[in-house]
Amino acid sequence: MNDRGFDQSGVKQSELDLSASKAHTERSTPKNVRYINYKLLSGVEFSGEPVVPKILREGQDELGGFFKVEELQGEDLADLLRDQSLGAKVKMEVVLHVVKQLQSIDQAGFVLFDRNADNIRIISMNKRISTRQMDIEDMYDKDTDAVYSLSQSKYEDMIQRLKKMGIDIWLPSVNRFAQNVCSLLNEPAPARAIISSYTDIRIMPTKKDVLGDFSDALSKAIEALHE
Q: Where residue 115 sits, what CATH number does that domain have?
């Protein structure tokens, strides 16, 4: 077992408490887009679990509005990908889980632009993988055609360009996520090779349904690791 509580198969030795007895406080100011995005995504689930941390309480004090968000245990995806004691199969299965979680967010009508391994929290790997999307500061609501970000005009322009070219709006996000994951993985082919094909936006395998295509490619890579 390594110092993070995983055995060599990548299974957590004990379930982490999801009751969120601890919480951290954030200000619900107009500039805190995380508050808006957590609220919008609060009803989205994947594999029977919320995709973002729960807002436990909201209120007002002498400084203005605030909200308390559950303080989740576990580790960031970046730390897991750097862990040399875990095999490629374990890491790839977690990455696949995260991509499928993003697919559930897409199906709910939202697009996230700022995903990387540092803002994805792994809560548990005992019996099943459990993750949350953290620190969401750049998001697009497809139903209302609204961007929630401090860089609103930047993303609005990008979305319009992608729509005119008939390109999946998720493409830049998947490209960035693949670049980040690939930079942290120190694994041989086919695990690294599959992800590498999504790191160059000019030659990505598809410009349509990028999340679905990436998910299928990761599944094939995991199957190859079984052989």
A: 1.10.510
- Compute the average pLDDT of residues 157-183: 93
Q: How far apart are CA 197 and CA 175, in angstroms?
A: 9
Largest CA distance in the chain: 61
- The DSSP annotation for 107-165 comes to HTTEEE----GGGEEEEE-SSS-EEEE----EEEETTTTEEEETTHHHHHHHHHHHHHT
Same domain, 79 and 191: yes
State which residues form the domain around 32: 23-70
Q: Judge whether 1 lies within some domain.
A: no
Tell me, what's the pLDDT at 50? 96
Q: In this structure, are 133 and 56 located in the same domain?
A: no
- Model pTM? 0.85
Structure tokens at 34: 């995380």
Tokens, residue 174: 């998947």
Rounded-to-integer distance, Cα 123 and Cα 89, Å: 18
Spatial separation of the C-alpha atoms in residues 90 and 125, rounded to whole Å: 10
Amino acid found at 25: T
44-64, pLDDT tens digit by residue? Answer: 999 999 999 999 988 888 888
Measured CA to CA, the distance from residue 154 to residue 149 in angstroms comes to 9
